[in-house]
Design a protein that fits this description.
The chain is 8% helix and 15% strand. By secondary structure, it is mainly β. Strands 1-2 form a two-stranded antiparallel ribbon. Strand 1 (32-35) and strand 2 form a beta hairpin.
């Protein structure tokens, strides 16, 4: 089954750089984490200091 962003979502879906996430201990290679019930980009590997465009 294919999943995508819900058309009525308040924010667009995150774009994860899996190359940066590959060896991350925080997100275990997923590039995103769940905080307070919301999916957010992992700040350890996807933050602006990691060369994310």
């Amino acid at each position: 089954m294919t999943h995508g962003a819900h058309p009525n979502a308040p924010v667009p879906a995150h774009r994860v750089n899996i190359t940066l996430a590959r060896d991350c201990d925080e997100c275990h290679g997923w590039g995103s984490v769940v905080k307070d019930g919301r999916c957010e980009l992992c700040t350890a590997c996807q933050g602006p200091s990691r060369g994310r465009a």
